[in-house]
Structure to design on (570 residues):
């Protein structure tokens, strides 16, 4: 397949991950391989350009404006990973350029006026602020529009490379070379392209630390480049400009489609979340219309992972508003369920199996997040929990196996690999106080995972929980999986954010958790809600897998197509 044919139907595969940036790199790769435009046998061959380089170098050396360059070995075929067209030549960068390093400015020499100083960040980011040079410097450090610059220091992948300066008179800082082209063998725009096509090779040769790295001048001067006839360089860059314009249009079209899709997703989810605030059962036309539209167009609407995340949050939001499953008037009202929970807590307190609950002030209706159906009630986490308390303080010891110590780091994606959980030293009389049981919910109270929860089920070992976790022991009258949903929904995270405290590292305490408002439906409806959420979350899992599969397939198709185009005749 020719590159021309590729571009004719590229829009069909342009939805793939990074497709347009990949196409841009492909275009530049074609350009330096001589596959972007046809060769013209009447062009002056590049061998004549090499002669002009030699002649001009000798003249500049005689005049004293150029130091005599050390002899470099000719470029071998294995240094360029492709065959170059007839009429082209291979040349080392140092043969065609004279590299002049910038001035080493000291911090105290910066000024608020004068000529701007070009630093690495000014090459990478046009919006980066300048420092200024308020005194005269030798001409060799001065830069004007059109000068060719090569940065040789910085962060790999962002700083190295060639640039053509286009922002007026300036002074060059160290770590950047001003390159004087010798013999006019290279069109500057093609030379920039040729150097930047070898960036990975430059980075591989860099040395230094994890952050700032450098490439030495001798290594840079040995970089092998392809040298086409000058006329072909002009034709190539004209074609590059044309195709980059096409890429701009493809990118703009993609962005426009994504904006439209995002607006549609946002509007539909807003209709689901807020379209009808009625808490009463019965027909809700606006809500039903949004739900019907969204769930019938899921594949077309969910094209990115963030769409699926938004959908998951909407499902949880609807579940806790009583809008996910219908209410059944035959269900025992949640007010009676709450009375049974209170009776259970009082009984356990009398038996000294649980701390006596502290009285809590009544909730103000205006402070509640939203209205709930008539057979629901608003409660607090402490009111539906037997106990909320911190974990055991001990050092983890992998050699101990009798009692394990579950830590925040042992919980990943709502799962625990119990075999790798270390043990701890704990007195026998303390084990019962912290021993984990089915239905317990653990909440991270500090650090980057603050608020993340884990529902304990089927623990295969004796385990206690560490001090950076808070345990919520929900009432056995409550469906534990419904309570876990409450601790994943947007309403919970909003309350957590409002109640978290700590300047350096935010944290949440047991009192804050206990005061959190919890919408409490009848027990039978809790089970129906969880079942429906499971069904819809499985749908989200399927959508996520489809996105991954589609992205992989598009990436493979793109790479195969580009490879075929690269190997074909232009």
């Amino acid at each position: 397949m020719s590159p021309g044919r590729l571009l004719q139907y590229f829009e069909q595969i342009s939805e793939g991950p990074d497709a347009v940036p990949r196409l841009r790199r492909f275009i530049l790769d074609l350009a330096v391989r001589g596959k972007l435009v046809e060769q013209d046998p009447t062009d002056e061959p590049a061998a004549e350009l090499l002669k002009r380089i030699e002649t001009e170098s000798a003249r500049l050396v005689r005049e004293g404006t150029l130091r005599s360059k050390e002899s470099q070995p000719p470029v071998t075929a294995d240094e360029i990973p492709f065959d170059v067209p007839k009429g082209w030549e291979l040349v080392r960068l140092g043969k065609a350029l004279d590299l002049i390093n910038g001035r080493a400015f000291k911090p105290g020499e910066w000024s608020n006026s004068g000529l701007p100083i070009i630093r690495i960040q000014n090459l990478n980011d046009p919006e980066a602020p300048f420092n200024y040079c308020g005194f005269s410097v030798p001409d060799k450090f001065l830069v004007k529009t059109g000068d060719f610059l090569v940065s040789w220091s910085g962060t790999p992948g962002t700083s190295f490379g060639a640039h053509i300066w286009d922002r007026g008179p300036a002074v060059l800082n160290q770590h950047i070379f001003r390159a004087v082209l010798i013999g006019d063998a290279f069109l500057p725009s093609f030379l920039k392209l040729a150097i930047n096509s070898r960036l990975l090779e430059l980075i591989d040769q860099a040395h230094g630390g994890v952050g700032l790295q450098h490439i030495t001048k001798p290594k840079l001067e040995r970089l092998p480049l392809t040298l086409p006839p000058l006329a072909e360089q002009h034709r190539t860059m004209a074609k590059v400009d044309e195709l980059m314009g096409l890429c701009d249009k493809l990118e703009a079209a993609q962005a426009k489609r994504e904006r439209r899709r995002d607006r549609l997703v946002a509007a539909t989810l807003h209709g689901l979340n807020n379209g009808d605030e009625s808490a009463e059962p019965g027909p809700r036309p606006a809500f039903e219309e949004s739900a019907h539209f969204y769930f019938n167009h899921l594949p077309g609407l969910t094209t990115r992972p963030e769409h699926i995340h938004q959908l998951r949050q909407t499902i949880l939001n609807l579940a806790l508003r009583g809008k996910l499953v219908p209410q059944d008037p035959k269900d025992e009202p949640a007010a009676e369920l709450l009375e049974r929970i209170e009776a259970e807590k009082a009984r356990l307190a009398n038996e000294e199996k649980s701390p006596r609950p502290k009285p809590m002030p009544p909730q103000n209706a205006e402070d509640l997040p939203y209205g709930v159906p008539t057979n629901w009630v608003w409660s607090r986490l402490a009111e539906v929990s037997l106990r909320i308390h911190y974990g055991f303080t001990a050092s983890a010891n992998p050699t101990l196996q009798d009692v394990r110590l579950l830590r925040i780091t042992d919980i990943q994606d709502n799962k625990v690999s119990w075999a790798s959980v270390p043990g701890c030293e704990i007195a026998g009389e303390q084990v019962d106080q912290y021993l984990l049981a089915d239905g317990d919910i653990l909440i991270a109270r500090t650090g980057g995972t603050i608020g993340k929860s884990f529902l304990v089920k089927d623990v295969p070992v004796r385990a206690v929980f560490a001090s950076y976790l808070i345990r919520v022991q929900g009432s056995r009258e409550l469906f534990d999986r419904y309570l876990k949903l409450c601790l994943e929904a947007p309403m919970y995270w909003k309350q957590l954010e409002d109640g978290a405290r700590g300047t350096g590292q935010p944290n949440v305490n047991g009192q804050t958790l206990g005061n959190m408002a919890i919408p409490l439906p009848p027990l039978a409806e809790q089970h129906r809600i969880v079942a429906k959420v499971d069904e819809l979350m499985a749908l989200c899992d399927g959508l996520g897998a489809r996105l991954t599969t589609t992205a992989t397939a598009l990436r493979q198709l793109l790479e195969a197509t580009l490879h075929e185009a690269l190997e074909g005749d232009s």
In short: The longest strand covers residues 176-181. Residues 44-228 form a domain with the Adenine-n6-DNA-methyltransferase TaqI; Chain A, domain 2 fold (CATH 3.90.220.20). Confidence is low (pLDDT under 50) at residues 276-285. The radius of gyration is 34 Å.
